[in-house]
Write a structure and sequence with these properties.
single chain; Immunoglobulin-like; C8orf32 fold; five-stranded antiparallel beta sheet; four-stranded antiparallel beta sheet; 5 helices; 17 strands; disordered N terminus; protease; Bac_transglu_N; Cysteine protease; Transglutaminase-like; hydrolase
Amino acid sequence: MSETHGHAPEGPARHRPLIPLREEGAEAIEPIHYRVHHLTSYRYAKPVSRNFGRAHVEPRATPYQRVLSHEVVVDPAPARLTAHTDFYGNSSTYLLVDAPHDHLDVHSHARVTVAERRYPLEQMSRPWELCTPEHWGPLMPMDALDFVHPSPRIPAGTAAREITEQVFTPGRPIGECLAELTALIHSDFTYASGATTVASTLEEVLAARHGVCQDFSHVGVAAARAAGLAARYVSGYLRTAPSAEGALGTQPAGEMVGSAASHAWLSVLVPGTGWVDIDPTNRTFVDQRFVTTAWGRDYADVPPLKGIVVGPPGATSTLGVAVGVVPEPAPGGPAD
């Protein structure tokens, strides 16, 4: 491979991220412990009578992440608050506020531990063509096939095939493909908050070449699926740096884009390694700065909060979101 951890990539001028490879004798990095607080806040111009909602805000256990605790707190107090686990193993919270109210605050409190991610050189060096389903073997989970096919927000036959042709060239190692896909989206698309909405289509994003993390994740998934690979949409959070006010009201850590709210990236299945996560928004492989909450075929499977509000005709609302992902001391150890 032309790209390894700690070495500059070869090839075109586009700056590709380093692939986090397992290196013999390298010292392991300790897990990082985080306190996570996600607040979604609605303010209604006129009181509404009922609120139904489902939130995907609970971090999930993964090979690199352990969930120590989680709690959802809703104000006003809900008439119903229940948990549900979907087909992909994501936990969501259903809420019902069944009395007149002029606001809705949904707090998610969690503590998680995030470990280092490193991938084996041999698997990341295999040609990408050997990562398609016909090469998976009998031990691969069959639910991964869902992530090979088109989905409601990522249809087949899009302009993303042009990206596929640039990235997935014959015989290219899968690790280099993922690094190039990350860099290409980062360089060819402009991050512009407010330029798109959750209803914006993939074709609109591909035509305009701007959007936010959700859009860039859809583009990456579409390009990988067009090559015949399994790719899924991942939602979660980025590490934030605490301000003087505490966990909420935080500022981004370093140059990471998207740490003020929910974030999104994508994951591609590499046989022998598992799912490898990349973040085109920040031109990086996913590492210990990321906290995973859920994954699905596309955004529609795992929105942070969706629901139905029953209220007077023409009632309007304002939305506020605040996220804090703050390192805290390990049990019995010093702070990160």
